[in-house]
Design brief:
334 residues; alpha/beta; TIM Barrel; 2 domains; 49% helix; binds flavin mononucleotide
Length: 334
């Protein structure tokens, strides 16, 4: 099996769980890690917040736990602030610092960070230089193909960032102008792969095992990253990693085992956020588990309502246990 070596940090497989704000919190990453994702990345952390935050709060928020390697993604545009934030992340145990040059959100690009940095290569390089100068751990970058169709500069920028010393690059095959519309252009990522000799991770629209084969084939990338395809399926990146090695297609936990997974995820969310916040934070995840269970749409709607409109944690726990049987019957009927 090929190993991805990120500046000395060696991965056991080729499939990374994408950073997703509001989704890939510590409870979700821990599950994905345990199910065999080769690497998981924190939600983006504003460099400014990290630089101003209290370390104990941050430790809890980021939640290293047994996650290894522990990757913290930073977003920001001020080199010195990003360097300061990176030092704090390293002190909190980060094995790798990833810099966000891909986020399309107006509140991020409006602050001229995220994918807006692809329009300011000199600033992007300045940030990398400052962060690399501040920490001993490898520094990586996640980007899009470019700002818009007329400016797909990912290959050129990736090469310049490699010269500045980054250890890996991840490319989401859309431009910033596309946000999440259209298709991820897996073939374009091959231009980035050709431009650099550091590992390249390809990202965008991997929902099935065949997509995983497709993105690796079209891009020639060293590995792939899965975001939305893991919603309601924290086991999926690990299953894809095993699929790449062995061709085996795991279906993931079903029936009572699915209910066990949901129950564990639920308890972890409640203890991570506390009950009040946790009840709300869990809803989207429970909704995704329902969506993925192959139920009749009207039946799925009833379950979603049960999970999402209930303010009593014990009632939700009981519903999760009952859901196991419904999901089992749906899987049997499929
Ligand atoms: C809700 C949501 C939040 C995201 N947050 C981040 C983030 O914090 N940092 C980042 O680099 N990308 C973020 N992304 C982009 C994903 O990492 C990924 O590049 C994108 O979803 C395409 O991959 P996919 O088709 O596998 O989901 C986010 C995407 C979504 C849908």
């Amino acid at each position: 099996m090929d190993t991805i070596n990120i500046g000395g940090v060696k991965l056991k497989g080729r499939v990374v769980l994408a950073p997703m704000s509001g989704i890939t919190d510590a409870p979700f990453r821990r599950l994905a890690h345990r199910f065999g994702a080769s690497m998981v990345v924190s939600e983006m952390v504003a460099g400014h917040d990290l630089a101003n935050g209290r370390p104990d709060t941050l430790r809890r928020t980021l939640g290293r736990g047994d996650i290894s390697p522990f990757v913290v993604q930073l977003a920001g545009r001020e080199p010195q602030l990003m360097a300061h934030a990176a030092r704090i992340a390293e002190d909190l145990g980060a094995d790798i610092i990833d810099i966000n040059m891909g986020c399309p959100a107006k509140k991020v690009t409006g602050g001229l960070s995220g994918s807006a940095l692809m329009r300011e290569p000199n600033r992007a390089l300045g940030i990398v230089a400052a962060v690399r100068g501040a920490v001993c751990v490898p520094v990586t970058v996640k980007m899009r193909t470019g700002w818009n169709d007329q400016n797909r500069n990912a290959p050129v920028l990736a090469r310049a960032l490699e010269a500045e010393g980054i250890a890996m690059i991840t490319v989401h095959g859309r431009t910033r102008a596309q946000f999440y519309k259209g298709k991820s252009d897996w073939s374009f990522i091959a231009h980035v792969k050709a431009a650099v000799s550091i590992p390249v991770i390809a990202n965008g629209d991997v929902e099935t095992f065949d997509d995983a084969t497709g993105i690796l084939g079209a891009s020639g990338a060293d590995g792939l990253m899965i975001g939305r395809g893991s919603q309601g399926r924290p086991w999926f990146p690990g299953a894809v990693a095993r699929f790449i090695d062995s061709g085996q297609r795991d279906t993931g936990p079903r029936g009572p085992r699915l209910a066990d997974l949901m129950a564990e995820h639920y308890e972890n969310i409640l203890s991570h956020y506390g009950i009040a916040l946790g009840l709300r934070a869990a809803r989207k995840h429970l909704g995704w588990y329902v969506e993925r269970a192959g139920l009749e749409p009207s039946v799925a709607r009833t379950w979603r309502a049960e999970f999402c409109q209930n303010d009593d944690a014990n009632a939700v726990r009981a519903a999760i246990a009952r859901f196991g049987n419904a999901a089992h019957n749906a899987a049997e009927a499929a």
